[in-house]
Amino acid sequence: MPENDSSMKIKYITNLLLAFLLVGSVSCIQTKDLESRLKELPCVALEKIQGDTTFAAYYEMWFTQPIDHENPGLGTFKQRVLLGHHALDRPMLVEIQGYNIWTEKAGELSKLLDANQLTIEHRYFNNSRPDSLDWKYLNIKQAAADQHAVIQALKTIYKNKWISTGISKGGQTTIYHRYFYPNDVDVSIAYVAPLNLEREDKRIHEHLAKVGSEESRIKVKDFQVACFENRKELLPLLKEHAEKNKYQFPMGFEKALDLNILEYSFAFWQWGNTNCDEIPDSNAGANDLFSHLIKTSPFNFFDSAGIIQQQPFFYQALTEIGMYSYEVAPFKKYVNYDKDLTFDFTLPEGVDGTFNQKSMLAVNKWLQTDADKILFIYGEYDTWSATQVHLKDNLKCRKFIRPEGSHGTRIRNFSPEKQAKIVQTLEAWLEIEINEESLLQK
Predict the structure, then answer these.
(1) Across the strands, what pairs with 77?
(2) Taking the CB of residue 278, how many other CB atoms lie within 10 A of it?
């Protein structure tokens, strides 16, 4: 005798509840199993935290790392690592930070790949600092060894595909890690990562001389000139701004103002946060000039607290991974500096800031010959694209440049056609199918 509608509905609801309970119990078992396995890892402290709730579970871990991997007896420090867990059979996306950990959120790629996410803070930044900073151990080789240790530990648990990624300095760090440990992961995606070949790479100046339209470049320079010509009126505004924000400038107010006016063109093209229509003309008053200047190029870059916070970056830039300088020749009428201004004022007191070009040249040669399955993402207008990776004849890697893109360029910012090509590249390299719609929706 056929079941009536009422009994069928009750049966359907009962089966649905049983299914939910079964999934929940399996998830609970998997989480408990994961935690027990994580606790077995060497040199790790573990705590389950809220984190990004899109993951099934989220953990904060502290790995004990040698200050010098070649001399473990020198001492150790704790390195902060975050783990967003979906499932043991999903790929692992490693977010390699070039600085501190900015966010606990799932990144673009972990969403695209429906992957677990491991986020590694860079040595000497924020929470991952030795008690005593011996600066010579802050280099790309030691940092890569940190990341290698974390990845190898977690690979004992997660057996699917491994992908590394990073943004800006994190993108650089992703490249360096692959240079030293090419087999740690299957594929890497480096976003907006410069590869500077000199302490102050002159290609930055060349980029600023030709980026965008001639009209745009003229407006940028005219604004800088207007700021220099109104320096006396801008200085009181800067002092008021500094007092309000508790800024202190070790180089003094006048040089801080000069530096920020020179920084303006770099920042304008790097971020694209303002467009040419917003640039005040040369007849604008001091208030309008200053408001636009701080919107495009904030003064915290030159504040003592900001410098101390970012000192590990400045040290690495000036000794190994390269930086840029401020070109003073175009403004010689307004400034009295004998040569281009560099960032030497950011170095820790008494620390040698001699640049060693050897590492970057070696990485550059490797990228053009032996590197494989690294995908590079750049924005055309981004100032850091001046020193982007050049693959030459290496067809084992791929590079995509978004027209008129900024330093904020991500895969989702490309046209649907280019997104499809990027996804196809990742599918071929990883030998998996990717739901491209998940990228377009997020």
Answers:
(1) 65
(2) 11
CA atoms within 13 A on the CB side of 50: 1
User: pTM for this one?
Assistant: 0.91
Nearest to 87 by CA among 121, 110, 69: 110
**Summary mean pLDDT of the chain:** 93
Residue 272 contacts residue 82 (beta carbons within 8 Å):
no
Residue spans of the domains in the chain: they are 1-40, 42-197+360-440, 203-346
> Which residue, among 356, 406, 361, 398, has the nearest Cα to 380 in the 3D structure?
406
Strands 92-96 and 116-120: parallel
- In this structure, CATH architecture of domain 42-197+360-440: 3-Layer(aba) Sandwich (3.40)
CB 422 within 8 A of CB 375: yes
Check pLDDT > 60 for residue 20: no
Dihedral of CA 316/322/323/328: which sign? positive
* Nearest of 316, 318, 308, 313 to residue 343 by alpha carbon: 318
Q: Which of 304, 399, 320 is nearest to 354 (CA)?
A: 320
41-45, 145-149, 380-384: range with lowest mean pLDDT: 41-45
Q: Are β-strands 57-66 and 44-48 bridged in parallel, bridged antiparallel, or unpaired?
A: antiparallel
